[in-house]
Design a protein that fits this description.
The complex is a heterodimer of chains A (154) and B (285). Chain A has 154 residues and is an alpha+beta fold. Chain A folds into 2 domains: 2-76, Ubiquitin-like (UB roll); 85-153, DNA polymerase, domain 1. In chain A, strands 2-1-5-3-4 form a 5-stranded mixed β-sheet, with helices on one face. Chain A is globular, with a radius of gyration of 15 Å. Chain A has helices at 22-29, 85-92, 102-115, 121-127, 139-153; strands at residues 2-7, 10-15, 48-51, 54-57, 70-72. Chain A has 5 helices and 5 strands; from the N terminus they run ββαβββαααα. By secondary structure, chain B is α+β, with helices and mostly antiparallel strands. Chain B has 3 domains: 5-51, Uridine Diphospho-n-acetylenolpyruvylglucosamine Reductase, domain 2; 56-171, Uridine Diphospho-n-acetylenolpyruvylglucosamine Reductase, domain 3, CATH 3.30.465.10; 177-284, Enolase-like, domain 1 (2-Layer Sandwich). In chain B, a hairpin with a 2-residue loop joins β8 and β9 (156-157). The longest helix of chain B is centred in the C-terminal third of the chain and has 23 residues, at 262-284. Classes of the chains: A alpha+beta (154), B alpha+beta (285). Chain A binds chain B through residues 1, 17-19, 21, 40-43, 45, 48, 51, 54-57, 60-62, 64-65, 67, 108, 111-112, 115, 126-127, 129-131, and chain B through 1-6, 8, 29, 32-33, 36-37, 39-40, 49, 51, 53, 77, 81, 100-104, 106-107, 188-189.
Chain lengths: 154, 285
Amino acid sequence: MKIEVTVNGEHQSYDVEPRMLLVHFLRDVVGLTGTHVGCETSLCGACSVMLNGDAVKSCTILAVQADGAEITTIEGLAQNGELHPIQEGFWECHGLQCGFCTPGMIIAAHQLLERNPKPSEADIRRGIEGNLCRCTGYQHIVDAVQYASKKMTT
Amino acid sequence: MTPFDYHAPKTLRSAMRLVQAFGDDAKVLAGGHSLIPSMKLRLAAPSVVIDLGGIAGLKRVTAGNETITIGALATHYAVESHRLLPSKCSLLPETAAEIGDAQVRNRGTVGGSIAHADPAADWPATMLALDAQFDIGGPDGERAVAASDFFVDLFITDLQPGEVLTGIRIATPPENSGGAYVKMRQSASGFALAGVAAHVTLDDAGNCASVAVGVTGVAPAAYRARAVEDALVGQGIDAVADASAHAADGVEEFQEDHHASGDYRAHLARVFTQQALSQAIERAA
């Protein structure tokens, strides 16, 4: 069936099967492979994207449910070749090792900082609790979000 | 997922028509955070999916002096972040904040969770403790059911074929009342191994004029711990410990799996009842 979506500012219409998941739509139809397929059971958060301003797990949403929506993926965060402050934070603070969880982590952090620009360490850990990382032990991710928070509020 | 036809009605009226036309072949989709996982596992394989997500009127949350209303399609986050609920009925945002994670709360809905009736879901306990009324639309018009009559068994509710849960109504608690929700999360899923919601209203002497306790995760369906309530009415905080010992009385069959035995869940129910009631009474005073 026909859907119209705006992905990272680009409005387009697509023809999709009703059972196609949003994450597969973004990766296989739109061609944006920055959003990862992890657990596919809404636990790991690797597939997180912004849907009409809300961070969501795109493995637990049908593409047809996104008809008319605005979607931002990890590819949509950098502007004019400049990393988003959260991306910069992950770079500067070594907030990743293998990088598989990173796009979802950054989307979760993005939502957190929108709602709470100056989060405490506990707020950050709670904000990213829906995202699993098996490399870092989370400490450097928390540092990265704190870096971004500082940069975005000063 | 097996293939299905997808319908996205824009009004409740057209949704109801579709639900009645397709009958048992159809499943109603709210936030999709129970139905889509079930469909991936082929535990559910509807040939028609009717998505209520486009019906704007079902997403509203209002908090008046008399009544709190939660549209069936309101997200957990809409309740968690509502401006007025912390002062009108803090038990609601407190429960919402305990569900899943930020992304799940952005998408999952209160009505979807209630209609799905997972035995470990959080909302049933709180809806029981707040004596919520559920508004249901169906082929014969509308009806309302009390939460205490709604949760029947494992994933089974009072919803009949062709019916749709449309909203939740709760009487706004009076001044001298308070509530609390205490839960142990299954650490991978975030669902409740056991969860207890308590709500009390105090009289002038500081004793409980009314008590309601909802328990989830322990039995096939969430239940009101009536024996606890009966033991505590007219009593004060000193009676909480003894009353809480009855939190699993009358449960004939316990939820039991590799995460927690039935005995352990019953134990948690008693401990959390004591904690939730103590906090509720302190907040009411």
